[in-house]
Design goal:
The chain is 19% helix and 27% strand. The protein has 207 residues and is α+β, with helices and mostly antiparallel strands.
């Protein structure tokens, strides 16, 4: 995957016909170029970007590939964590968005961004959030952070009116913070598939 495009980024394309390898026609997914596709984890020998198209329901997901030259706009999860995006969103009343606003009030030692349904709703205005929607977050920790800080972040979740799912992004993939707090090993999601690892921050030969 490109050094400047990462899993969970939202990207807009110049044409619906440029998505390769899909198991459905874009029109049948009710997708059009005013909506983004979501970068997923995978790898391709020719340098194509792995993407997914999402519908309004959890079971509406389609996978494909695009070439970089067809990308016209990129929105990162971190760019959605601004007061303007959150407060002026038509979903600002939603528990997940209110929780994100609360997180903005505190200082953290890492960058964090919104992913999943909340990110898609914030970026597009599409009504993909519902009352029971989680707030999906990724935090960037390429170097091992202070465990106390991770515990403080995790402890904040009990204060919010929705479930928060935090994925910790490291140099070779991402893992669930909740799973890591339970003890090793953890499932590390990488571009080459999931792996069980004892230490997600440890670099390994061939990783």
């Amino acid at each position: 995957m490109s050094d400047h495009i990462h899993a969970h980024d939202l990207i807009w394309l110049d044409s619906a016909s440029v998505i390769e390898g899909m198991n459905a026609e874009p029109g049948n997914c009710q997708w059009h170029t005013q909506l983004p596709v979501v970068v997923r984890r995978d790898t391709d020998a020719t340098g194509r970007i792995p993407v997914g198209i999402r519908g309004h329901r959890r079971d509406q997901r389609w996978a494909g590939w695009v070439r970089r030259e067809h990308i016209v706009r990129i929105q990162t999860p971190e760019s959605l964590t601004t007061p303007a995006h959150l407060r002026h969103s038509p979903f600002c009343w939603h528990p997940a968005i209110r929780a994100a606003l609360d997180l903005l009030l505190m200082d953290w030692t890492w960058n964090w961004g919104i992913t999943g349904s909340a990110a898609y709703a914030l970026a597009t205005g599409e009504p993909v959030l519902h009352a029971a929607s989680d707030l999906d977050i990724r935090i960037h920790c390429p170097k091992r952070p202070d465990t106390k800080e991770l515990l403080r972040w995790h402890g904040m979740q009990t204060r919010f009116p929705c479930r928060i799912d935090t994925q910790v992004e490291v140099s070779r993939g991402a893992f669930s913070l909740e799973e890591w707090l339970k003890g090793a090993p953890v499932l590390l999601k990488t571009d080459k598939g999931p792996r069980l690892v004892a230490d997600p921050w440890k670099q390994e030969n061939g990783s």
